[in-house]
Amino acid sequence: MDLLPISTPHCRVERDGHIVVVTMDRPEARNALSTDMLVGLADAWAYISAEPEVRVGVLTGAGGTFCAGADLKAMGAPSADPRVRERAAAITDYHWKGLLRDVDALPAKPIVCAVEGYAVAGGTELLVGTDLRVAAESATLGLFEARRALFPMGGSAIRLPRQIPYAFAMDVLLTGRPITAAEALAMGMVNRVVPDGQALAAALELAGQVAACGPLAVQAILRAYRETIGLPEAEALKVADAIGWPVIGSQDAKEGARAFRDKRPPVYRGE
C-alpha cells in the first residue's frame, strides 16, 4: 500500500487501488484521540470523498487496539508537527469531522471498521459513525461516559438508538458497561465477529466486496439513507427516486447488464 502525504504522526493513511486504509497509530496510548490523530482522520475522510477512484475506506487501530477514547490533554495541545498545526487551523471543527460526527462532512463512500482490543468511549463513537463493522472475538466496546458523569459528545446518544433496537441502545448508553464482541453482534452494533488478529483482514475482504460494486450505486444508497432520515415514507421515496434514477441510467448500469449477459466481471468506471 502507498502511504499518503496526508498522514500524521498519529494517523497513517494508505491506499491500495480503490481502498484507503486509515490506521490510528498511537499504540503507546491505546490509540487515544489526539490533535495529530483527529486532523489525520479529518483529512482522510475528505480525501476518500474527493478522490474519484477511491470507493471505500477501512478504519483500524495499530498495536492490537482500536481506540480507547479521548486524551483530553493531547487533544487540547498543539501538534509538534508544523503541517498538522496548519491543517488544524484550516479545518473548521476538525475534531468533529475526524470523529465522523459532522453530518455535513461524512465521507461520501462507505467506511468499514476493523476492531481489535478496546474500542471504548470515543472508540465506540467512531465505530457508530462507520457503515460496516468487524470486531475480533476479544474486543471490548462500550460508552462509559455516564459512569463518569459525562455525555457522549460524538453523537452516539442520537445515532445508536437509530441503528439498533432501543432497549439495546439504552443498555449501552445508560449502564456505561463494557460490551463484548458477541453482545455487540447480537445487538446489531457490528456485522461480524472474527478470531483475534483477523479483524483487519476481514474488513479488507468486506471493503473489496464493496469496491467491486458500482460506485455510483453504492454512493447513492448512502445518500438516500442519510437524506431521508426522519422523513415520512412517501416523501422519502421521492427523495430516493431523485437520487436513484440517474444511477439507473448511468453507463455503469449498462456495463452491469452487459457483464451479467456476458458472464464476466463488470468493469465499473463511476460514470
From TrEMBL:
<dbReference type="GO" id="GO:0003824">
    <property type="term" value="F:catalytic activity"/>
</dbReference>
<dbReference type="Pfam" id="PF00378">
    <property type="entry name" value="ECH_1"/>
</dbReference>
<dbReference type="InterPro" id="IPR014748">
    <property type="entry name" value="Enoyl-CoA_hydra_C"/>
</dbReference>
<dbReference type="InterPro" id="IPR029045">
    <property type="entry name" value="ClpP/crotonase-like_dom_sf"/>
</dbReference>
<dbReference type="InterPro" id="IPR001753">
    <property type="entry name" value="Enoyl-CoA_hydra/iso"/>
</dbReference>
<comment type="similarity">
    <text>Belongs to the enoyl-CoA hydratase/isomerase family.</text>
</comment>
<protein>
    <submittedName>
        <fullName>Enoyl-CoA hydratase</fullName>
    </submittedName>
</protein>
